[in-house]
Amino acid sequence: MFLRKIGIKKLEIFCLCILLISCTSTQNTPDQNEKFYDLKETPVNNSNDKVSENYTLEQKEISSSMVDSSDTNQILPDISYFATNKSDRFFVDFEDIVAAHPYVGANSPRPHNDAQVYFSNTDLRWLNATKPSDYPPIYAIADGFINMPEMGFYNVVDHSNSSPPWWHVAYVFTLKIAQSDGNFIDFIYQMEPYMIPELAGKSKDFYKQFILVENGQFVKKGDILGYMYVPSFEEMVGNKEASSHIAFSFIKQPKTVYVPAIFSEQIVKKFGEIYRNPSEGWESKSFGFDWNRARGLPDAMGWMINGDENPFNNNDLGVLLYDGIQDEKIDSKAMVHPHELGFNSEDILYQKYGWGDTLLENIIVNEDWQLLFAGIGGPMNLKFIIDENGSLRESQVFELRSGQNFSLNHKDNFIGNSSKFSISISDPDEWGWSLAFARADSEFTQPGTTRDIPPLCPPDCPPSPNPYKLKK
User: Fold this and answer.
1) Structural domains in the chain?
2) Which of 26, 75, 134, 159 has the fewest Cβ atoms within 10 Å of its own Cβ atom?
3) What predicted TM-score, i.e. pTM, was given to this entire model?
């Protein structure tokens, strides 16, 4: 390995500067909130980082040492090392997560500059947990050095421009694993349970006990860095579209965000399987609309990225899984096939899928029906063309606006006894579409409708301690 332990000295590290798009969105509203962290130096062994004089924490033993900042560049590999030397240690255990999405790049219908993994809020392992180590462990994905913001255990994620306004608290740190052009490359760990500790009857420093590492600490691949707190629904804030998760990406200091393409092919394929097929199904009570960012996507750590988001070269890529060169030959098309939309396969009466503008002529459905239509991204629309006494009538049924990502839409029979019609689909950017007609009595559960416990707020969230300011 490129990393080695050396003597204990002072480490001067630049603090985290993350630009992440808001982690909660609906399927119809573009992401508007962003999270900004000021670039600061994070001194080692800061004794002023406690928020409670009575707070004590028994630190778990982890292989560690401090390193002089003048030596750090010499012992961290160039980021190009990880183009072909992938990590075989994902940062969580796959059996602990229920869904995910990769880094969705600038060339996608609706970009989002991090990847995420999601946790079940109904898993009895977490509901019955009594101590931090009962919760999902978080691992070092490579040898490196911890960078811990002073208030990393109380990181306000603000949605003050939402209506009604709300906010929640995350905890965050990064792991320096590489360098590029004299700048550090950090792997970001941002844990977002969707909880305000004080509102849930906990102390402000509640999340501090879930962090096992310190600023400047050297860790080895596979070391446990902390634990992910997974709240009950009764403790959560936000809305019924929020989903407890960890956001992750690369950041080249001070603020260039890269696809976290550090993991082996085997890990990425497991990752892809869980974001296409969540382990609790799309009807999970823990479902969040952010899960839709990955629906139907191919195996990847990054999808539809531009060269500025590529950590290994300047290539625009549909898929980033390998070294940024081999990936150019991978098919980046996304698709959710008709039998995956939500109807029982035996109930489907007619189905089609494809990419681009399409006219489906003279469709015949002889039974009463309901329809599911999915689009990977906008702009896109679907129109029925119905023959009424010799004249054609068009009726627009579904529309995805430009800037909208995956959307699943349901429609009951609205044309009565007419059994013959045509459908026109406009998909100018060829993102992909899928439709299925099923019997009217076929069971279907719309994702996002099964959670029956309201959040603590909004409405009536307390004022945010760090109100988000829209850029003018």
Assistant:
1) 13-329 (2.70.70.10), 343-439 (2.60.120.1050)
2) 134
3) 0.86
